[in-house]
User: Fold these one by one.
Assistant:
Number 1:
Amino acid sequence: MTTLNKSAFRFLVLIVCTSIVSMLGIEGQADDVKRVGMIGKGSQKASTARIESLKQGMREYGYIEGENVNFEYRFANGDGELLLRLADELKELDLDVIVAAGCPAADAVKSAAQTIPIVVYTTNPVATGLVKSFAHPGGNITGMTLMTGSEFHSKRLELLKLIRPSASLIGVFWNPSIKSHQLSLKEITNTAENMELSVLPLDAQTNDDIERAFKTMSDEKPDALINFGDSIFSANKKSIADYAIANKLPANFNNAGFVSAGILMSYGPDPVKLFVRLGNYVGKVLDGAKPSDLPVERPSEFDLVINLKTAEKINLTIPPEILLQATKTIQ
């Protein structure tokens, strides 16, 4: 072999070796990229703030989208049957963890994916059978829970009673297809009875059901309104707020998004803040923690948001003791 041929051969070997090392490096990097699925019953657009908060919480654990973690989003836009199919899709994607936003999504993904770690944001996962206990979830599910129970419902009803002392009938928007709503309706009915109040259930799963609820309220004349969180109510928050204002009904809904639409007030934990903590949980699971070893976390902060413009429109004066409790007011 000539000197020139030897040099060419060495150069060729160098190129081949460099290519192999490069390919191995890329493959190694790909192996290090985690895959996170996220599923919800509502729309991805409406969940933008929560998704960003989730990513913020994950960044606190070193997981950055596009660098060492990628996302697979599945949102059903209010379609319960589609939600079940989307949960089946996620199961087949070889994910490291699934985030389930809301009770219907948590139920759907639990049935579909029994071995993939699942981090949920839901109401009372113990009572609905998602986990064994708050302290020791067991299985493949953990996450954040919203506050429920007589104490929470009592506070929501108490705020309405302080604003409208003559109130006796409370309309409650709920979705009968959601397990946690079934439990919450029983809880709030019992709590209301102890406060000498009655409950008017306003069940809704579709837009047509919302219109039917308006007809029911026109017939039954509730004195105030409350809801349990669901995408059907979020999707119709403007029409619900308009009805409440037109009929001078004080309403205490589950998050501040409704207050921005014109509902009088909201009381409850801030879901955007909770999703930061949810992102922390995802980070822990990606670091190797088992969901069964991570206690389900309950909120410690509750926001009271009041729309003073709505109060004026429905001819209500907010008592000073309530204004002092307000986290935020809309002027």
Number 2:
Amino acid sequence: MNTVFEPKLLLDWLSPQLPNMLRTLETFVRSESPSTEKAAADICAQVIAAEWNKRDVAVELLQQKNRGAHLRIAYVPGNAKPRSQLLVLGHYDTVYATDTLAKMPFRTAAGRIYGPGAFDMKAGIVQALFALDAIQYSGVALAKRIVFLWTSDEEIGSESSRKLLETEALRSDAVFVLEPALGLKGLLKTARKGVGEAEIIVHGYASHAGLAPEKGVNAIHELALQIALVKKWNDLPRGVSVNVGLVTGGTRPNVIPDHARAVLDLRALRIADMRKIEKRLRGLRPILPGARLAVRGGFDRAPLEHKISAALFQRAALLAKRMGLTIGEGTAGGGSDGNLTAALGISTLDGLGAVGDGAHSPGEYVVARTMPQRAALLAALLLHS
């Protein structure tokens, strides 16, 4: 068995595999898998499992009560008994309802691959599949188990998969996340904002707006004062944003409203800022006499800070250079399951999936020619980690 393998040879082997990669991607995309439709997601999980079962791996379909099955695939070469592992993480669920293919069909045009979930992130699963093929072709004796985990509910918060993926991450020396790359330059995501949602709920006292306005406590006025306060917490240069995205309250114009509610989107690039925002939220107090205030929610995903990805990115950049490629890095404003693994202190590198654009939109697409390159980069990382 080899112990050293030049990364460029991985790319040389994978480049002619592009037609096979595209056929596999078409199979996966044609099996629609909305997060909230268990039956469809379960079928897609079986379709993906069937492809992985063609390889020398152990495939587990982990059934869920209300969501599609999660897929855990373990590769342990030969008779090795590794004491550690590497985790390759992603999801097969999409934001598109069943029958979206009727108006958004799988198609190829001008070197781009279109279809629901092609970019986010079924192409990433295909790239990982062929990365494994390349690893097996290399003949390198791996010292670590590789676990591929494809979940069914990332797009709706990872409720049923969070414990599973955190357990696998804690067993792992590093986590490689196959979420799409950042932009058409294929940047790896070495930082992600933490993401959360909070509610500010105000209770006042109803009264007639004309006959006895002084007897009422206007919940909407109180909420407006709170919103003005919260607005000052925004610090965009630091990556802190608090967006009031939904406001409700009152019953009719001639009634002093006794209730009002605002829903906030919370984002922060640093864990310290996340904690500061949550502390401020808990510290809100009523401003108008007689008003009552409640705050619910907070951050659901902590930030993926740059320091948790820095070493893995440097390794990726070096390996890419040896393949004749240039790889860059960037910061993503949204969260992923990579935020969850990074919060555990596990080295995590995100954005290793497809290069393309238009996630969650009718124009979602993958740049086809980049798929072998991304698969080669993942294979090289797994061989050199």
Number 3:
Amino acid sequence: MSAAQYVLPDHFDGIIVTAIVALAAVMIRSGGIKRGLELMPWPDGLEYAAAGINLAKGRGAVLHFGGYTYPSRYTGGYPLILEFFYRLNGEDFPALYASMILGMLSVFGVYLLTRGQFWRLGATIAALLLALSPVFITYSSLVMSDVPTLFVTICAAVMLVIATSDYAAQSPGWMQLSAWLMFGLFAGFSTISRPTNAAILVGLVVCVVMVPLEHRDLASLAKAAIAIAIGFAIPVAWQLHQNSINLGSAFASGYAWWVPEVYGAGGRTFSAAYLFGPTMPRNPHGNVLVYVTTLLGLDGMLGDRGNPRYFLYPFAAAVFAIVGFVTIFRAPGRSRTRRLMWFGLGYLAALTALYCFYVFTDVAFILPGAFVLFIAAGCGTEAANRYARNVFKNPNRKPYKLAAAAGVIVLDLLLFVSLASEAAVRLGAQPVESVMIPALQSVDATLPHDAIVVSNISLQVLELYLPGDNLHFVGLNSLDPGETFTDYHLHRLYEKRAAGWNGAVPPVVFESEQISADESDSLAAAIGAKTPVFLLLAAPESQQYADVLKSELDQLQQKFTIQPQLQNEAVALYRLTPRDSNLPP
């Protein structure tokens, strides 16, 4: 098979995959893009977007707010992808669209990988299963690394197939080595997107052991290993350099910098206790039960009994995936196909085993390795239905074969109902639009370009959505009462300082329950120097926090005159002017 035949499906394949990708786009946007625009969940989406912007500005994969720069807790793989989109489309480009685009490319990639090995129906089913996977749909509309890492993993799998293909073997040696180099590069990039994805190397070892390469002489193996190592080392070396610059050590962790009580030396990030004991967030079952039921398509049984939906794929797809694996591994020849499936299975098994020991539980963690399940399910669906058709055509069929063929029909119906119901639920959802982001955009149009803005909204959010070069943001307080837009990062910095850290922190007007005299005097001096000063408040979501804000406003009114400028259901904007007694002499 030539490279062109592998990469480019025929016209009918093009029509099918275009329709499935369009369906994926509709599914992703069906519930609205509110959470993606607001960079939820915090701090994940917020930090990814901020690191991507700061890479585009030349600061590195860091956070920058309140005039200071801090390390991000996350590695730089996904921010590098966001940097590419920011540089291509400008810094106003909504970061969530990167996940959407890579999600649709992932659907195309799964179709391509499956079609390159199997039949058209199998490829169609595999791509549909991914396009209608609830966890895939949800995370494709968020600024999170899971779907982009899935895309990078699929790229690595494509490179593996090309590197071990007959076409590469018959081509000049440099072409095959280039494919191995690109495999290593994608594997390394997947690792710096999420360090646990180093498990992809386990998949490589498994596939080579289970289906040895055609050229097994020492020189060929050494060349392939060197090419993979060089490719893998390039992104990893970049990440280690970033760690050295921003964290002081190549092997330091941004997680430990921000949350030392969980990820520091005394934390228990990985433990055997999480196999069957409770984990975060709100998982009383332990990791083993969650991930095993997910892989079997039975995870809905652990959730709301009134809504027993699956998260990764349905039960019928899991059965067909088993059929697909058995069919592929028992088929004579087709070493390239078996190698791909062993690669995916080894990677998925290693990734799942690793996350079984992790303190947090999320089905999205194993999504990058789950591509092989969608391929196997597509193959298994086609193989099972071919078997059923042959049985029904055979007048001398045996009863047990007829029962097996009937079971295939039942599974087909279950699969159709599962996918159709998921599509119906998504299409029937009422899109929820963001109120905060349009509110911030209206504030941005109101503010003078050189204003000082005091706010209870996350300073990092303000840096992203009010991006004036001369705007200066000051925290109203360092509290994080757990409300949607309050400042998690500022709160963590003040906690670090209270624990003995001596780094710089952005100033706040209320470091305690009482107003800071230094900061209030600084604001008064700025107003005296003709610098406009504004107070931007997000509406409180609890009575307790509303009482805190009322107390702070009462104290501010003793120092300043507060003049309303703009108000809506999300924010209120006021201008501060000093009372006569506070005017500078």
